[in-house]
Write a structure and sequence with these properties.
mainly alpha; 14 helices; MFS_dom; transmembrane; cell membrane; MFS transporter
Amino acid sequence: MKKNGFSRDFTLVVIGQIISLFGNAVVRFALPLHLLNISQSPALYGLVSALAFLPLLIMSPLGGVIADRVNKRNIMVVLDFTTAGIILLFLLLSRQVNLVALILVTLILLFSISGLYQPSVQASMPFLVPEEKLVQANAMINTVSSLAGLLGPVLGGIFYSMKGIHVVLAISMVCFFLSAVMEIFIRIPFVKRETDRGAFRIIFGDLKESVRFIAKSQKVIGKVTVIIAFVNLFISSLLIIGLPVLCTQVLEFRGADPNQMYGYLSGIMAFGGIAGGISAGVLGSRIKIGDTWKLILGVALLMFPMGGILSSAVPDMGKYMVLAAGAFLMMLCATLFTVQTMSFIQIKTPGHLIGKVISWVMAIATCSQPLGQAVYGVVFEQARGQEWAIFAAAGIASIIVSLYLRKVWIAEEMLDGGTEVVSGAYK
């Protein structure tokens, strides 16, 4: 590892993530959108999205245990090859079985793999970069994710409209295969932990140890994780379900394909994530962790102009532009918040617990998202013409969440001279 910079292996992880996350962005954009197009039902779209998301909650804690006990490089390689195989199987079966069921099963498998995969990536960061570079490293990984999210939906929307779902999935399959090949050459420090316990006792013991750490040793991590769960319930779920419904069923674009317009909107959101990642890398040493509640408040306040424009007499393209601007700013704030909180958790957690703790954070933080997606799917189907009210209600709820986060930081004595980011590290 380079003492004052990023190592060769971290660079390879970043390159592998660029390829893998691009393929992931393409397939996660195309499959749900294809389902919405063939069913024309926001409720079914929300239900399938919710059911597909559930395995992520189960697999993330298991992924954390595996990440702390198995070579993280090997996990990434095997799972990327497996994902490529799943997509190939979808292409072979898509004209022979019920398409709705096939999409659901495929999404469930992909989210399950994601639950196993992401803890390994996050847990590898402290082993690949020095502590003072963690904020910048996490910012870079988030930027890469956002870049993939920018290009994936935009290009996926174009190819989906021109060539159909099969070409899009073929491109995604190639990306996962290339990423797996790239990751073979990564070296991540790993020391095998000897134990005489059985597999079940190892898993149970490791999960119990990480839960005890979150619940007793570092209660602030648990509190912040629950807050993120509410953010996902009120905000993330709304964007995931609401934006494609608005683009494909509510707004009218003269001479433009609705699927492409949603692809562009997804790309704009990802560009906001890139801007947030860059801002986190540049401003990370100046942002106090106790001020992150303001980022959630900013996201909440953006809900009101986004909802208000939907009830106005502004032409649909004007409404689309306001939604795009709001989504861009929301992603910028959300990425800044994610980078700061993830770096905080990584530094506060001992090395042998990082994978498990992060996996619990991911599982708990996302547990509300399936519920939100299912509810928003029904709400958008039943409240046609009243979409502005959905945004307003989500905005009010999110303001309450941001104010509670402020109280959490104050209670932990972080806001006034406690834990803050200084030169890329927390003090």
